[in-house]
Amino acid sequence: MAGGVFLLNGADAPDYGGALTVPVVVTCLMAASGGLIFGYDIGISGGVSEMESFLKKFFPGLLKTTRHASKDVYCMYNDQALTAFTSSLYAFGMVGTLVASRVTRRVGRKAIMVIGGSMFLVGSLVNAAAANLAMLIVGRMLLGLGLGFSGQATPVYLAEMSPPRWRGGFISAFPLFISVGYLVANLINYGTSRIPEWGWRLSLGLAAVPAAVMVLGAVLITDTPSSLVLRGKHDHARAALQRVRGKGVDVDAEFGDILAAVEHDRRNQEGAFRRILRREYRPYLVMAVAFPVFLNLTGVTVSAFFSPILFRTIGFGSDAALMGAIILGLMNIGGIIASGVAMDRYGRKLLFAIGGALMFTCQVAMASIAGTHLGHGSKMPKGYAVAVLVLTCVFSASFSWSWGALYWTIPGEIYPVEVRSAGQGTAVALNLGLNFVQAQCFLAMLCSLKYGVFVFYACWLVVMTAFAMALVPETKGVPLDSMGHVFARHWYWGRFVKDHKFGNEST
Predict the structure, then answer these.
(1) For 467-478, how does the pLDDT look when each residue is reduced to its tens digit (9 = 90+)?
(2) What is the CATH number of the domain that holds 282?
(3) Minimal CB count within 10 Å: which of 281, 343, 393, 406?
(4) Is the dihedral of CA 153, 23, 259, 232 positive or negative?
């Protein structure tokens, strides 16, 4: 590293001119707005699947089944064609992420976000005009490719542009916008469900609005200094860094670290995906795999997809189920905001510990209530149904406080520049792939395991919380290009990552 500076902990991190300048705030918020398309689609999918006009056009057989369901409330929505409507997006999102990871070094983070937003825009219009199930799935595929591109580039962009002392808060803006998009989608679903015949078209078509915001924001912002240096545009890179750090701020040290990191990258010409498999990059590969796996095993992904259906299952009416999803959206936003404030002040590990304990408690309590008061041919008594709603809200807030925010923050900040696109791409692609599997399998799993599905997720919460506390290093306040030193000093990862790989250890 430039000057041979290394850090023992986040408190020793150099400031690098970390003031909250107007350019850095505007730039990061415009980039983070890409999260709107994630959240909007998650919210829209579950709500539209509840609309009778939508089911009548594309899934008439399922509509008849739900109207006359009397045997097993856990199985009343178990239909693989319906789940394919949701899951197809995530399968193609995985493909989009892998493609974006391979080209982002050549075209830059900004260009990837523009491409992703554009594909999402086209996909939303195709969905709104869908005349048959095939056209609906094609639109979902385009949406998936757009999600893959934007999801790969946006967290990396935020990590590379934000000042170290505020990085956690800025990266958490991405999941915050996801939560906002989810809330807006459920509010729209609540209104459009009252429009006969074509209300679902309006819900799906309005996805073009956050996509247009994403494209506009990506066009107006500058690319990151690291990305510009990777493409040989040193003058542009320094100008971009000076712009976001503020006039008069000395950026020599930070720019020197960026140049040193990129130079190290160029001395190793093998591809980033091949390089991340090497022993010295083992911690980063483990994080790239573990984070998306554990994120999906919290159970929140399927709750977000199918929350209106889940609330209908436990006894709420259609309007009440949609309103329950809106309440979940508000809880998500509250959790993300609290996390953004806390993570740069108290560190990442505290968030994992509190969130894991609360989520485990909620899952066990929901299993107990559902196992006692929900069975064949019966709906849950109102009081207990409200209790499940409250527990689901606490669970959502706890998830947003912990894994919901940190899933984007930690993988976005830990990777060395030479494997940054591969690490982030692997994490996002695997997450979308697992989203596909869960979205396709959850309703069948609910039908098979019944209330045991909550116990299944509760057990995994114990495992993932232990992993986070023991194996995820504290990264509060550490500059991106000094992150390797944190892993080198870790009790376990130090056997893989060596200090000399990142620079001189003197001073």
Answers:
(1) 999 999 988 888
(2) 1.20.1250.20
(3) 393
(4) positive
